[in-house]
Amino acid sequence: MFSRVFTRSTYLLKITTFFVCRHNNFLQKCTYIQNTVNATLGLSDVYIVDKRGYAKKAKDKKVENKPKMEMTDEELMEVIPLEELRLDLSAAVDHFKDIIRQNYSLRTGITVEDLMVEMEGLEYPIKELAQVMKKSPLLIAINCSSLPDAIKPILKTLTDSGMNLNPQQEGTMIYVPIPKMTREHREKMSKSLKNDLTQFKLELNKIYSRYTSLARKQKEARISSDAIFNACEHIKFMTDKTFHECEQLCDKKTKDILAEK
């Protein structure tokens, strides 16, 4: 819809019309209206003003997941063991960072001595079970003569490490050729990293469920329903924030992995 105001001296004429036409006919219609007004009113000066209503672009709203009701640490501690929650979240983050450091190194000199090996229900780094030696920049040797029972668990750990390792056993020795970083290997590492991030999120979900369950049990201690609800909101915020930080770390690492060099 266009509103045109024609003005001269004390004459004021307001004409509103609708144009349903192609753009190339628009100027012709404007000229026709101008000539018609000039002839009818005897006006020598006619000013045509187009007034268009443009759609305004909506402002981007910053989405915040912060709890609607703020709670101090003291208020939260009345509902949940806050320090234990923070320690559990911190431990989960440290574990995820260790996974990235151990399994997704892009350096030629890949190290395996810190990879965790499960034996008899417990986990040990390879360096505590065997002697790790670097024969060359492209070959690692692991001497398991002091603990032969660790050979099979170490082989499994190396194979399942996600580092594209192909260990070879010769007696009590394990030889690990360091693979060349191919495009296919990079894509496998990226996919494996996403799976590890999913597992990390599941671990955070367990932490969230455990502490919200503790909070809801506080009804028996005569804690108000509002306080319990707000505490659960804060637990969710803390776990979501923790996941978001590690997700950003994962995204950055994925870009590094897939970057061609």
From TrEMBL:
GO cellular-component terms in the record? mitochondrion
SUPFAM superfamilies named in the record:
Ribosome recycling factor, RRF
Q: Example GO biological process term?
A: translation
Give every Ribosome recycling factor domain span. Answer: 112-258
Pfam families according to UniProt: RRF
Keyword 4Fe-4S included in the entry's annotation = no
A GO molecular function assigned to this protein is: ribosomal large subunit binding
Keywords of the record, alphabetical order, are: Protein biosynthesis
What family is this protein classified in?
A: Belongs to the RRF family.
- Protein's name in the database: Ribosome-recycling factor, mitochondrial
